[in-house]
Write a structure and sequence with these properties.
single chain; alpha/beta; Nucleotidyltransferase, domain 5; 8-stranded mixed sheet; 13 helices; RNaseH_sf; Ribonucl_H; nucleic acid binding; nucleus
Length: about 350
């Protein structure tokens, strides 16, 4: 058996994005076919390695087994929170003064003042086109385990409250979960009925558009930001188009890839939780993801009809003649990057 190892050949078969090495070029082609590497992946600011999530990027920089060269440079001029690398320690220090997602607690307390309702249809370009939503649930049913929306808050891009109200559930509450909700029976006695809350929010989100005409980009319908929005919308009995939902719990770059470290996460409050704080935290995450500067591509999604044949099996011979750089150039993302909302 010939056990010789051609290191030079393996180097030629190295993925330009994640740096994995393959014995055969056909294996690299297959890797590129299923990896969906793109400019939208979190990327190390030092060695330019692509990672599937910010958590895996954090592990690469400061995890249990980081790349030593990147770790040393990052420790000197990298931001521990957003993982960006700067030209100097002074630039990093200036950046870190504003690189945070918390400090909302004191402001959030003002949302306890009762109903706020600034939901208006229309408003043109000056109206809020991106809004965050968060709910707090009390318990229903014989054992109090059924989630019932009892408080809802919505904010705009500038963290202003545009809607806040206690919600009267359609069935009796059997567990107010006061330790985390801070909700007492008297708060819900004269609260806005669920049906009214549902209609106000649904009409505001659609903003005069019919549900079936709403599309991912353009139009009047508003973009909805939140964390675990499927559950919130289900409890509110609201249907909304997935194309307009930006859920931080489902966004691939923010999802966990292992149990070793924490990625870009906002501070979870202990004790009573205020939905305003949740709105602000998720909105800041969304705005940070949206503000990323990525290379502009005419057709950035792998699912686009013009990209579906990029790595087609019938092109195998042609692909094997390409360099790893050329293969990365035609590779596209399998998720909608929020930078495309800009």
């Amino acid at each position: 058996m010939d056990c010789r190892y051609d290191y030079g050949e393996t180097q030629r078969n190295k993925c330009e994005a994640c740096f994995r090495q393959f014995n055969k070029l056909e294996h690299l082609v297959e890797h590129m076919r299923i990896s969906y590497h793109s400019v939208h992946e979190p990327t190390c600011g030092i060695c330019r390695k692509h990672c599937r999530s910010f958590e895996s990027l954090r592990e690469h920089l400061i995890g249990p087994l980081p790349k030593q060269e990147c770790k040393d440079i990052f420790a000197y001029r990298g931001c521990n929170f957003c993982l960006k690398v700067f030209d100097s320690p002074n630039s990093r220090w200036i950046h870190q003064e504003k690189c945070q997602l918390t400090n909302t607690g004191i402001i959030g307390r003002f949302s306890n003042m009762g109903i706020r309702d600034n939901l208006t249809i229309g408003g043109g370009a000056r109206g809020p086109q991106v809004v965050a939503l968060a709910c707090k649930m009390v318990g229903g049913g014989s054992d109090g385990s059924l989630d019932l929306c009892a408080r809802v808050c919505m904010t705009d891009e500038h963290e202003n409250i545009i809607f806040h109200s206690y919600v009267k559930p359609p069935i009796p509450v059997t567990n107010y979960r006061y330790e985390t909700t801070g909700i007492r029976p008297e708060y819900l006695r004269d609260a806005m009925p669920m049906r009214q809350v549902q209609k106000r929010i649904q009409d505001f989100l659609c903003n005069g558009e019919s549900m079936w005409t709403i599309r991912a980009r353009g139009g009047k319908a508003r973009t909805l930001v939140g964390h675990g929005l499927d559950h919130d919308l289900e409890c509110l009995q609201i249907e909304y188009r997935a194309e307009k939902i930006r859920d931080t719990a489902k966004y691939p770059p923010l999802m966990k890839t292992s149990k070793l470290s924490n990625s870009l996460k906002y501070e979870i409050q202990n004790g009573i939780q205020d939905p305003y704080d949740d709105c602000v935290a998720t909105m800041r995450l969304y705005m940070r993801m949206r503000s990323q500067v990525h290379k502009i591509e005419d057709h950035p999604l792998a699912s686009d009809t013009r990209n579906r044949n990029n790595f087609a099996s019938w092109r195998q011979s042609e692909l094997e003649r390409m360099s790893s750089e050329q293969m990365l150039e035609i590779s596209r993302s399998d998720f909608y990057c929020w930078c495309l909302d800009s």
